[in-house]
Write a structure and sequence with these properties.
The protein is 53% helix and 11% strand. By secondary structure, it is an alpha/beta fold. The chain has a single domain (6-264), classed as Protein tyrosine phosphatase superfamily (Protein-Tyrosine Phosphatase, Chain A), CATH 3.90.190. Strands 1-4-7-5-6 form a 5-stranded mixed sheet. Strands 2-3-8 form a 3-stranded antiparallel sheet. A hairpin with a 3-residue loop joins β2 (12-13) and β3. The two termini are 27 Å apart.
Amino acid sequence: MIVNLRDLGGYEVDGGKCVKTCLLIRSAHLADASDADIAYLESLPVTMVVDFRTEVDLKGKANKDVPGAKYVNLPIDASGNAAANATEEEMKKVTGRKKFEVKKVIMFAAFNEKAKAIAKGMYPTLLFDPDCQLQFARFLRLVVDTENGAILYHCTQGKDRTGIASALLLAALGASRETIVSDFEATNKAYEKDVRKYSRLVRFWGGKEEEVAVVKAFLGANTENFVKALDTVDQQYGSIEAYLKGPMGLTDDDIRILRKRYLSPANNYQTYT
């Protein structure tokens, strides 16, 4: 089953319009997709799958193919460095085996100072690091240039890198800050049980709130930090619209194309054409 699979369709934006359904789809990885999941994506049809995962993320978790869809890898590395750079011996202490198991390694990372710093700076890194900006700009260009079918984009859990990508798309489509934050926060419903479980384990091992915060950041979506990062965008660029036209490279024509393709009157729901 694909975790955290959601459609941006249905969100209302300025001007009495809403995002069309079944065109912009966000999710976690597709490695565990069921046959029914793949059949559904093929039926839309999904014509492009954009994967933000790095080589470490991909280890043992290759996507299942969606027939008819082009696969594009735009690796973005912003949050998993501390866990990913753990030695094999360190990982074995946590997992009891050599296989990389991200949730258990995150528990190890909760007590790592580097991981704590990454957790606090995750969203500013995604929004302001030049390499991250370049990949998100490439993603938005792909969306502008893809005229037909649906686009599915994802990372490992479909929350941070995918959450930023969704925020940028919604901003380009004219969504309010409230809508953008609401979509970001919705991820926490998908991972609520994991966050509770591993937070309890970290506390059992002696972790305090600082350590639990790492678990919450890496297994859930830290909405408070996300809002602060958006505020920093406003401070540095003047607005998220200026950010889109700055490091994201969108033009007024690009934004018009996106809104024409992906928006419909709120009282006249439409899917892809």
